[in-house]
Structures are given as C-alpha cells and as structure tokens.
Amino acid sequence: FKDTRVNDIWLVDFYAPWCGYCKKLEPVWHEVGVELKSSGSPVRVGKMDATAYSGELKGDLAYNYKGPRTKDDIVEFANRVSGPAVRALPSKQMFDHMMKRHSVLFVYIGGESPLKEKYNDVASELIVYTYFFSASEDVLPESMSLPELPAVVVFKDGAYFTYDEYEDGSLSSWVNKERFQGYLQIDGFTLYELGETGGVCTKICHPLYSLCPKYFQFGHIDGNDYINSLIMGEVTVPSVIILNTSNEQYFLPSEPIETLEQLVQFISSVLNGSAQAYGGDGIIQRIKRVAFDARSTIMSVFRSSPLLGCFLFGLPLGVISLMCYGICTSESDDGSDDIDALKREGLTDEEEEEEEETQCAAELEAPEEGENEEEDAGEKDPGEKKTD
C-alpha cells in the first residue's frame, strides 16, 4: 500500500487465524521483515487479521502479490512496487548493469509521445510482475538499430524484440506475454500466470528444449506431483507434456522422446491437429478432477499419519451414521389429540358444550349396554344350557 499523503509504504500480510497456509507463511514473513529493514528499504512490513480488520488499512495505491511464497520473491516484489512504475536509465553503465541483473528487461526509447503514455499505463498495471525502464537512444549498444522511434523493446534470451502495434495488438497483452523467458522454471504460480496470457504452454521435464517455435512457452517442472493432479494420472520422469492453458487440454507423445527429431514431430502433430487431446475444462472433467484431488488428499493424509486420518474421517462418518440410524428408527407420535384440538378450535362455545354433553352421555350409556349383554347371555334357552 502506498499512501502519498504521509509518504508511507506498507507491505501487509492479511491472514486468518485458522488458515494453514497463513501459519506456514509466518516464518517466511518474519524473514521478509528482517531483510527489508536491514537493507534500508522504505517499505514497512506488518500483518493484520483479515477476519477482524480487513478495512482498516487504506492507501492511494494497492498491489496484490501473485507469486511464490518465498522470502526472495516477496522482497523483490516489495522493492519493485515501492519505487516508480518506470525507472530511468541515464547512462550506458546503468543500462549494462540492469541487463546483467534482469533476465527480462522492458525499455521505452524516445521522447514524449502517445506511445509513452500507453507505456506508463501498462507499467502501472503490470509492475507487480516485472520492471519497466526508459532510456534515450544513445545509451543503447552501438550494434543495436531500431526501425523507428519512439519504440518499446524487450531484452531477453540474449536478443531483443520490438513492439509492433499492427502485428502484436495491444501493448498490454504484448508485455504480458513477453515478460516470460523462452525457457523457465514452472510452478503452480507461473502456470497460473501463463494461463492468464491466453497462450499455449509447453512444460518439459526433458533435456531437449532447444526448439522454441512461436506460440509455445518452454519450461520444466521438478518432479511430477503437480502434473499428476492435472492429468489425473501418473507421469514418468523425464517426459514431455504439452498443455493448452486456455482450455486445460493436454497432449502426450505416443512414444518416449529421445531425439530432437521426435520432439519436433510431436510439436508439429499438436500444431496441425493430428495429436489426440486429453482433458479439458468441461463439467464432467471438472467433477473428475475434484474427485481425484479429494482422493489424493485423503490418501496422502493416511500415508503420513494413519491415526490422524482415522480420526479426521472416522469421527464425522460415525456421527453421521448415528444421526441417520436415530432418524430411521424413531417412532412417529400419535397426532389424534392434535387433530381433535384443531377441530375444536373451529367450534363456538355452545357447540363445544353440546359436544361435551354428547361425550358424557355416551360414557354413561356404555355400562348399561354392557349389563344388557350380560342379561341376554344369562337368559339362554334350555337347549343351549343342555349343550353347555
């Protein structure tokens, strides 16, 4: 949060006391505070209970962190957003220093122009992901030539690429796609960011990654835990998987990839549509993924701590079973009294008195009818007595 009225910059962790991820972040957050304070950063670090004080902290600008929960990544984010959205490169020495420090570098080159205004807006929007700089043409390497000025250039992978409004579309979407290196380490956060760009992501756990065609993002994942949950199966390592982040479809090679030619053939089959697509984001597929994740979570709990798993899942099931048993075996109450009461509510006082008198008369007549029956039973004809 930036509050320009009092010149305060705060990096705040909004947590919930019951949240396991929040508790896991606590030691990392303490290291972040120590690091920023020891480095002389103007950023002040704090934490607030989001369940009680969510509306207490306000500022003129607020940036939400969307990255790995590590000390270095959080500190880098704080240093990036605490400064200006666009930083100036006044000399060649500063330009060379930034080229060595950053793997991806966006630079606006030229004077005042409508393109610069767009660049400043994009920098304010996407500074949570990367740095933005501005420079004059004389600070660039002599070997570098630009077709026209002003221009927006990205330096990465040992080369540079110039933004073309007619070919690349909006500046924001171009920056959002070009902020990734040609080959990078991929985790859950990076994969989510790649999905937001709308591109096609190629994740590789394989030494062959020198080929980089257009529309493909190359990278690697350590281990297969994350990808197993994505394809709902077991992936052997090393292997090559192509994932379309726009619809969550994935492609698997028909045979293990061991040569560059096999890798090129696999990628070409995906591009021309001959490769079989799996997965997707349909309703049935989402239900299957939820069921798979639930089963994987339960199995991991039982593997790590069987007793804890029995307690967590056995106790609720036992309580639910007892409740169901009680409901099924309970006897229904006789509601005749309630029905009579409801009938009486609709009667007047005179009708109620008549009904009571009728009931009393019926009760008095009942014994007399019983006595008449006994007398009739006693007055049997001689034939019946003889039979008796």
TrEMBL record:
Assigned GO CC terms: cell surface; endoplasmic reticulum membrane
Domain spans labelled Thioredoxin: 7-53
EC number: 5.3.4.1
Chief subcellular location: endoplasmic reticulum
UniProt-recorded Gene Ontology molecular function terms: protein disulfide isomerase activity
Topology relative to the membrane: Single-pass membrane protein
Entry keyword set: Membrane, Transmembrane, Transmembrane helix
Known catalytic reactions: Catalyzes the rearrangement of -S-S- bonds in proteins
Biological role stated in the UniProt entry: Probable disulfide isomerase, which participates in the folding of proteins containing disulfide bonds. May act as a dithiol oxidase. Acts as a regulator of endoplasmic reticulum-mitochondria contact sites via its ability to regulate redox signals.
Protein name per the record: protein disulfide-isomerase
Gene source species: Echeneis naucrates (Live sharksucker)
Gene: tmx3
